[in-house]
Amino acid sequence: MSERDSDIEFDFFEEEPATTEAQSTRAARRGGRPPIRPPAGVTPLLRLVGLIGFAILVVVLLVFAVQSCRGSQKQDTYESYMQDVGEVGNQSEQIGRRLNTLLTDPAAKLTDIREQLSGLAQQQEQGVTQAEGIEAPGPLREVHPAVIQSLQLRVSGLQGLDRAFQQTAQIKNASTAGRALAAQARRLLASDIVWDDLFKEPSRSTLAEQGVRGVQVPDSNFLRNPDLATASFMASLWQRVRGASTGGRPCSPRGTGLVSVKALPAGTDLSPSTLNTVEASENLGFAVTIEDTGCSQEVRIPITLTIQKNPEPIVKTQTVAIINPGERQTVTFSRIGQVPFATRTSVKVEVEPVKNETRTSNNTAEYPVIFSLGT
User: Fold this and answer.
1) What's the pTM?
2) Which pLDDT belongs to residue 4?
3) Residue 290 has what pLDDT?
């Protein structure tokens, strides 16, 4: 055999690489299991499904973020608008309070009233201009004009009162003057109705429809005392300021009187001549009624209620803003505090005399009382 033949024979018997089947057979012989592999093409499919799921998640998160952002912007828009309107409404309320203070000033003269009315009207005109510059969100554009209309009525009412005081300065009939003044004051009362009915309530409904929560619709009450728009009140006011302006003698007699004192919440009338048993509960209070017994309108009348107690008495004070001749008004004292129990004490009520009041015996009363614990 040649050297070449020997080489060929050697190559023939050389071990061939093991096939997959042989490897599996060997693994089975050694007690192991062949590796499990996914069928061809499954792995790319799983990867594709995962990518699609991830993409869907990203889209959902983006949509949620956009909606959340839009909701936040919507909330901010409505809140900003209501804040702007609230600022205008609050400024107008302050003007209304100054008007009330002016008309209830015991020493007010006609010239003072006219001068201040003109200034208040100018301030309210600025409020109208400010309201016209406020941009309302789309759904509120139909109701925003009610804000402007309400403020314009207040300007008209203030200017009208100024003119009416001027026109009635030379007449002598109080009823005629009262009707003329009341006609202008009713514009102020109407402004409050316009604000409430045409702006406030529709705005609340719109916010609810738009799903806006936690945004308050501002209020604005200009004429807190509706009596200011009545002819009888204005007639008495005209008489009072006209007398102060001309320096003439005031009418006589003038004065107020204490009518009754009731213990609340039962509403029991207190008697100054017998011992009164009053149940002391969390709602304990007293209703004091007074009457204008004179011929003149009276303003800013302090009423003081005192309960004797050691070491210091309980003292409460209320004020009747305006009361006309023959009229009765009631003020309520609440949050009395800790009263003495099971011991005799007294409740004293004092109505401060008005200027030039001569009869003051009916301005004060003292009621013997014993407070009992509620059942």
Assistant:
1) 0.67
2) 44
3) 97
Can you give the pLDDT at residue 36?
A: 59
Residues in the chain: 375
Which 3 state secondary structure label does DSSP give 360?
coil
Rounded to whole angstroms, how far apart are CA atoms 144 and 218? 12
Tell how far CA 86 is from the center of its chain.
10
Helices (H) and strands (E) in the chain, counts: 8, 9
Is residue 307 within 8 Å of 366, Cβ to Cβ? no
Q: How far is CA 358 from the centre of its chain?
A: 43
198 secondary structure, DSSP code:
I
Residue 292 neighbours by CB under 8 Å, 6+ apart: 255, 256, 298, 323, 324, 325, 326, 327, 328
Q: Which helix (H) or strand (E) holds 189?
A: helix 174-194
- pLDDT computed for residue 296 by the predictor: 87
Distance CA 276, CA 270 (A): 6
* Cα separation values, 286 from 66, 261, 267, 309, 347, Å: 58, 7, 8, 17, 10
Query: Position of tokens 């003698």?
Result: 249
Spans of the chain, pLDDT less than 70? 1-42, 54, 58-72, 243-250, 374-375
Spatial distance between the Cα atoms of 368 and 277, rounded to a whole number of angstroms? 9
